[in-house]
Task: structure prediction
Amino acid sequence: MLFKEVLGLEKTKQQLTNALDKRRIAHSQLFSGSKGSGKLALAVAYAQFINCESPSSQDSCGKCSSCLKYNKLSHPDFHIIFPVVKKSSTDTPYSKDFLSKWKEQFLQNPYFSLKDWMSNYKEVFLEKSSDKKKESVIYSHQIKELNRKLSLKIFEAKKRVILIWMPEKMNLQAANKFLKLLEEPPENTILFLVSEEKEQLLKTVKSRLQEIEVPSYSVQETITASCAEKSEEFLRFCKLSNGDLGKVLCYDSDNLKIKHTEEFIELMRFSFKSDYAKISEWVDMISAKTRQQQIEFIAYSLGLFRECIIFNYSDKKLNSISAFEHNFLKNFAKFIHQENSILIINLFEEAIKNINRNANSKIIFFNLGIELIKLLKVKVNFA
Result:
């Protein structure tokens, strides 16, 4: 991947190219940033730049043997480690077992998040629902395998690059093994750690890394980067994405309307009518979706509740909603007001936390429906 293929981040790119020019490349670097930022794309582009056979002062050539291999993430001296799921206590999964799928996801969208990857991973590689509820981890046996690779000679690169994606997912045993590697780094080897939640790293690990903070994208940058039609619905989606470019690049307006708007309308109608049977059917439907899809629905719902507040108390020109959503909100918004809006928003935010804790999704969503029955009946007089 070339630097010019990474959206924006010009100051950070300059910082990296300057370090190579001055031969001040730290052997262990932490690329940190929020979901959907360019941290992973930037780390891969930097690895390619370091090993390019004919680089300019600002970028790789993109044509030499090394660049062509990096373009496919197939360079023999570029190793990738990421979180995996153990199906049993005796299971020893390695990143290499799932690497082709990970590479495929990167080449399609280099701004994808851990949640994006795990949603894909669990759909493709895990069959049992009990396995799909397990957390992804970087295990000590993966670090042991890394040490074995590092004991071998470099094949052809100037520098061997180890990319550890989501190092905060290391368990304690893995982190301690990795710490020893940081203390005695192999010659001509660079470690790139790419993290969404750097605060979860062991302090002893983090203190040995040179950090490169990768800023989030602005809403306007995500809008410009996407090839989607710049509809009102799309613009609102970008605003709700909070600079998550990976999410914006996966935008699909038709699916978004089907998956979110209509599901939201059904839940509100069933709850308002106190139709427990329909709520139960709706819960079965939403519970069959992946955890990521459930979180996306709740995030969408939170956005629409906030749009209701704007609709009621502010200039309606400030609303960022589609015509389809507007037709619903002009009748529904009056039920979301100062007496219940905070309680409803807290209810949905708590649901996201519980889903992330792997709580039973049917209980979570049935509770939403039951609580909404009460909260939507709370009345207020608009002046």
Summary: The chain has a mean pLDDT of 88. The longest strand covers residues 189-195. The chain has two domains: 3-216, 252-375. The beta strands are 28-32, 78-81, 160-165, 189-195, 210-213.
